[in-house]
Amino acid sequence: xxxxxxxxxxxxxxxxxxxxxxxxxxxxxxxxxxxxxxxxxxxxxxxxxxxxxxxxxxxxxxxxxxxxxxxxxxxxxxxxxxxxxxxxxxxxxxxxxxxxxxxxxxxxxxxxxxxxxxxxxxxxxxxxxxxxxxxxxxxxxxxxxxxxxxxxxxxxxxxxxxxxxxxxxxxxxxxxxxxxxxxxxxxxxxxxxxxxxxxxxxxxxxxxxxxxxxxxxxxxxxxxxxxxxxxxxxxxxxxxxxxxxxxxxxxxxxxxxxxxxxxxxxxxxxxxxxxxxxxxxxxxxxxxxxxxxxxxxxxxxxxxxxxxxxxxxxxxxxxxxxxxxxxxxxxxxxxxxxxxxxxxxxxxxxxxxxxxxxxxxxxxxxxxxxxxxxxxxxxxxxxx
Length: 384
Ligand code: PLP
Hints:
Layout: E1 4-5, H1 16-28, H2 38-58, E2 65-68, H3 71-86, E3 90-93, H4 99-112, E4 115-118, H5 129-138, E5 143-146, H6 160-169, E6 173-177, E7 196-200, E8 211-215, H7 241-256, H8 258-279, E9 284-285, E10 298-302, H9 312-318, E11 321-322, H10 338-342, E12 352-356, H11 363-376
Bound molecules: pyridoxal-5'-phosphate.
Pyridoxal-5'-phosphate is lined by residues 70-72, 75, 98, 100, 148, 152, 177, 179-180, 200, 211.
C-alpha cells in the first residue's frame, strides 16, 4: 500500500547525509569527549566543531550554544534558569505554546510562586502585541516573556524583532521556542536581541534526542542537570557525540539549501490547500494557515461536519496517510488540541487536522492524501 507521511511538524525523516555522518562517528570515534587522551580529544573536537558551525550560522559566539536532549529540555532549562538565576518572578507566555513551555511555566508557578500570565491573541491566532506591551508595562516585577516563533499546530508566526524591542524597552528577558522555525528560516542573532532560543534536531531532518539552547552571552546561568561539568557546567552528562554531529550536519544542510527546500515545501502545501478547496469548498484553514506569512511547513484544516470527523485521523491512517489531530502525547493518544482551544478554532462538530510537509514530500504524497480525504469525507450517504 502507498503511504504519505504528512506529519513533519511532529518529526521529520532523518536525511541520508545525516545518517552517513552519524554512522561515521559511531564507526570511528569512540572516545569520551571529557577524556584527555587522543580518542577523547577526537570526540571533543567533533563536538566543538559542531558547536562552532551552528553558532556561525546563527551569527553568535560558540560558547552561547549548549547542547541538550532536544527542545523540551532546552525550553525547561531557559525557564528554570530565568527564575532561579536571573531573578525572574513573572512569566508572560501564551496558552498556545507547546506543552514544554506551558508545563515548565506551571512548574515555576507551583514550585517558586512565580506569577504566570497569558497574552491575548487576535482572531487569526497571532499574538496581540498591544496586550503584551500592556502586560509588560503593568508591574516592576522582573519578567520573562516566553513566546514561540512559529506555532507548531496552526503556523502563526511571531515578529521576533518587534517582541525583542518591546522586551528591551520594559527590561524583560525573552525566550523563544524556535523548534519549528530553526532550519526553515534564517535567524540572524546579530539583528535580534534575544536571551534564549531552543532547537530540536528531529524537526529539521536530524536525529531525535538532541538539540540546543542558545544562551545570550551577557547572561550567567547554572546548569539544570548537574554532573560532570560538561557543556561549561551548563549540562552534566557525557555528550551525545553522534547526535550532535547529526544535528550539525542537518543544520548545515538546511541552511545551505533553505531557498530550494522552502520553495518545494510551499508548492506542496499549496497543492494540498488548492486540492482541499476544490474537493471540499467548506474547509477552513485554522489560523489562516494557508497564508504565505504563516509557517510554510504546516496546514491546519477544519473539515466540514461529517459522521467520520471524529475518526478522521484514524481513517486517514488506514488509507496510508500519516497526519495529526493535535499534539501527540507520549501515550500515543491524541488529546485534542489545547492550541485550537486556546485560539478559539476548536469546533466540537468539525474535525481539525494538521498536515505538515517537508522537502521529501512529493506531489504523489499530496495526491494520495487528497484521494484519502475524498474517501473519508465522502458525502455521508456514500461513506461506508
Ligand atoms: N517545542 C515545539 C514548538 C515543538 O513542536 C516540539 C516538538 O514537538 C518541542 C518543543 C519539543 O521538542 P523535543 O521533541 O525535541 O523535546
